[in-house]
Amino acid sequence: MQQRTEHSLERLLPPAAIAPQRLHQAMRYAVLGGGKRVRPLLCHAAGELTGADPARLDIAACAVELIHVYSLVHDDLPCMDDDVLRRGKPTCHVEFDQATAMLAGDALQPLAFQLLAEHSLTDEAQQQLDMLRLLAQAAGSRGMAGGQAIDLAAVGQPLSLAELEYMHIRKTGALIRAAVLLGALCGKPLAEAELARLDHYAKIVGLLFQVVDDILDSAADTATLGKTAGKDAARNKPTYVSLLGLAGAKEKAAELRTAAHAALAPFGDAARRLGELTNFIVDRSF
Ligand code: GRG
């Protein structure tokens, strides 16, 4: 499935030979050939739940991934996290230059919405509008961008667990939630209670992803992560590990895994892929 996403992204990104070449090269450099593609995988798995057409899911999955990559490119800039390594290769502004990296992120973001607007992704027109709104909200000031603002303001500040959670629900969780919901919306409409249950799962898995990311950042090395390890501790950034300890963070991840599976249980076998992905996310850290 990662291969499938890679091919779709390759096809949907502007060709490097078309002007402005350097900008298109930077966009392709940032997006292609790396990353775990967790969000596209979640999108496809959620689409399985509602019987969605995989070709439609490809588009929704790529839209979410483009927003994710834009956030990584901007996050790595010197004015934010100032990092030189991402997905095992030099960050976009190191490989190109800061202005090009900024523009690459700026161009990836609207491309995501263009994809959602110009492809038919569901038989229900209202569901397609819901998808556009959900992705916009997830990326915006009350979602990922807002979470990033809270994160930047928190460096060196003692945060409580509740405050840390508030930040991560937005910074990382919002887009992961959008990946799940967009995938589900590509298929047959879910009953209100089912959609609420899937949304509950999506919120849990978003948080779970961040707890695991904190565990990995504290425990794995740079070569394994493909990005600079131990940065959170070095910058005195609050994390689940700094607040709960490594064992406490692992316990939290285990609790969230159980809650995620409980949310999926009533869907039965239709949610099997989502269950497997939940385990994949957690098992990266154990
Ligand atoms: C610049 C608006 C703006 C937002 C940036 C998500 C984010 C906000 C920054 C990324 C920094 C970071 C390391 C966040 C922790 C969790 C996270 C999103 C990790 C990266 O996602 P993965 O592990 O990366 O899915 P790959 O490379 O596998 O796609």
What is the rounded distance between the termini? Answer: 23 Å
What is the CATH class designation? Answer: Mainly Alpha
CATH topology: Farnesyl Diphosphate Synthase
Mean pLDDT: 93
Any idea what the CATH architecture is? Answer: Orthogonal Bundle
**Number of beta-strand segments:** 2
The oligomeric state is single chain
- The H-level CATH homologous superfamily, spelled out, is Farnesyl Diphosphate Synthase
User: What pattern of helices and strands is seen along the backbone?
Assistant: HHHHEEHHHHHHHHHH
Helix content: over 70%
Specify the number of helices: 14
User: Judging from the principal axes of the Cα atoms, what is the shape?
Assistant: globular
Give start-end ranges of low-pLDDT stretches: none
* Helix-strand category: mainly alpha
Q: Widest sheet: strand order?
A: 1-2
Describe the structure.
With about 290 residues, the chain is mainly α. The chain contains 14 helices and two strands, in the order ααααββαααααααααα. It has a single domain (about 1-285), classed as Farnesyl Diphosphate Synthase (Orthogonal Bundle). It has a two-stranded antiparallel ribbon. The protein starts with a helix and ends with a helix. About 45% of the residues are buried. The model has no long low-confidence stretch (mean pLDDT about 95).
